[in-house]
Target: Prephenate dehydrogenase
Amino acid sequence: MEKNTVLLIGLGLIGGSIALGIKRKHEKCRIIGYDLNENQLKLAETLKVIDESSTDLASSATEADLIVIATPVVQTENIIDQLMGLQLKKNVIITDVGSTKKKVVDIARNKLGGKAVFIGGHPMAGSHKSGVTAARAHLFENAFYLLVPAEGENSSDSVEKLKGWLEGTGAVFVVMDEKEHDRLVGIISHFPHVLAASLVNYVADEDQAKGTLSRFAAGGFRDITRIASSSPEMWRDILLHNREVLLSLLDQWDEELGKIKELIKDENSQGILDYFTRSKQFRDRLPGRSKGAIPSFYDLYVDVEDEPGVIASITKLLAEEKISITNIRIIETREDIMGVLRVSFRSETDRQEAQKKLGPYYETYLDK
Ligand SMILES: NC(=O)c1ccc[n+]([C@@H]2O[C@H](COP(=O)([O-])OP(=O)(O)OC[C@H]3O[C@@H](n4cnc5c(N)ncnc54)[C@H](O)[C@@H]3O)[C@@H](O)[C@H]2O)c1
Ligand SMILES: O=C(O)C(=O)C[C@]1(C(=O)O)C=C[C@@H](O)C=C1
Model:
């Protein structure tokens, strides 16, 4: 029997993770990878993220039963353009993973006609890291995966088929329309990235003269700006696509800042307390790390004294319980006395077991 063929276009963090996720449940399918960057393409093959690499998009597309476009969103427009001129398989499904949906779904609707079924996709998990070396089969486990079918309810069979292809990602699928998608994601993902980048740029400008700000930048600044390390190309495209939503959010943001500015100006002690209480209550009620637009990396933060052998003693304790670590990193040093170690695990269970084991010896936190 002929093997089902998947074409993955764009083999970075997300494309690579989707390929690995598909293989979990469709071991026998053949995954062809295509990427403009030869290094990423070669790496993807070497790391066995794909079965074969292709340098001929057109001929690979005509062989595919499923085409996944995982490039920055402006590139996705060009790729849909290229695909529409080809003789594709009759029941082919085309999907993407881009962070915006309106432009891409509009183009697909207008250009693909009856040629293929297009279902926009957006896994709501990721990282500030890029490239196929950061790809993980479990990246989307328990995260929401938003689906936006170009033909709305008429494509429900194809939506089920696509969910079947993506089952191994372990994601939770939710179908919505493109307008709702771009507004929702504009608020909870795009806008925070704009704020993080602007905050970092502001501090960078202020820091130019002496360099003291970056030297003393502590947990708060680091927490709120991690995402400012994300791919600039990816974010350029997202902002160009979600322009209207972001412009309106920026106007509303001015008003929000105006409120706290007034409270400070008036030395309104109760008002300031209420402002922070309200935000704390909302933040504390957010669902845990298992779902939503929060990366599914299972990190545990451990306060450690800055002395020789501390990492070895932590890894020894974990090894005694046979808990595997996927990464370990010192992320912060306070006054050269205490450090914070970030230890990453493969699953929530491993993280909890590790916290139990390390708890008697070290101060540990799930969030920093
Ligand atoms: N990074 C995240 O957290 C995240 C989360 C969800 C969705 N997304 C979306 O996923 C998409 C990919 O993001 P990523 O983080 O994997 O980026 P990435 O930089 O890791 O990978 C993108 C890959 O696309 C390739 N590429 C670019 N243009 C191409 C073209 N015309 N043809 C073929 N290959 C091309 C690049 O060479 C690169 O290997 C973006 O649309 C982004 O909005 C990202
Ligand atoms: O965790 C991160 O680094 C992310 O930015 C992931 C994140 C987000 O949560 O905003 C970024 C863009 C996506 O489209 C979806 C997820």
